[in-house]
Design a protein that fits this description.
This protein is α/β, with parallel strands linked by helices. The protein is built from 6 helices and 5 strands, in the order βαβαβαβαβαα. The protein has one domain: Rossmann fold (3-Layer(aba) Sandwich), CATH 3.40.50.620. The protein has a 5-stranded parallel sheet with strand order 3-2-1-4-5, sandwiched between helices.
């Protein structure tokens, strides 16, 4: 079984994240969407809230698997240890990452090099963001919501209300 890990903070999960999940799960038999504790980033949502939001969206994806051309299993897990340790603990051989711009590549290039030194058997696969999602980031979604702007075109419907609640 080919197992892949798509790690992220998902604070909150965006339509861009969901696009990478839909496309990434076509590459593996099982995709683990790994929600990072990442307290250093000062997340708006707690780890439990982020896992719950991601799980809600994955449940929705799993329900419409066949219609979306998605095969295989998608699971949500949280982690607070080194990504490579998490990957090894879950018998994964692939890390899936999304890229939006050249600036993402520079950071990800460093991470690939470090991860390869930790475990050369684990491959990282980059998926370019689709053109309609290239500019979406969780940070910008939070900034727009905090200033009273509409975020419904950037995040799933259920996430809109949760983000807005945080800023009221």
């Amino acid at each position: 079984m080919r197992i892949g890990v798509y790690p992220g903070t998902f604070d909150p999960i965006t339509n861009g994240h969901l696009d990478i999940i839909r496309r990434g799960c076509k590459l593996v038999d099982k995709l683990i969407v790994a929600v990072a504790r990442n307290a250093g980033k000062g997340p708006l949502f707690s780890l439990d809230e982020r896992v719950e939001m991601v799980q809600d969206e994955i449940d929705k994806l799993n329900t419409s698997h066949k219609a979306d051309g998605i095969h295989g299993e998608i699971v949500v897990m949280s982690f607070g240890n080194l990504l490579m340790h998490f990957v090894e603990q879950n018998d994964a051989a692939t890390i899936i990452r999304g890229l939006r711009a050249v600036s993402d590549f520079e950071y990800e290039f460093q991470m690939v090099g470090m991860n390869a030194r930790l475990n050369a058997d684990v491959e990282t696969v980059f998926l370019m963001a689709s053109d309609r999602n290239q500019f979406i980031s969780s940070r910008l979604v939070k900034e727009i919501a905090n200033m009273g702007g509409a975020i419904d075109q950037f995040v799933p419907e259920r996430v809109v209300a949760r983000v807005q609640d945080k800023f009221q």
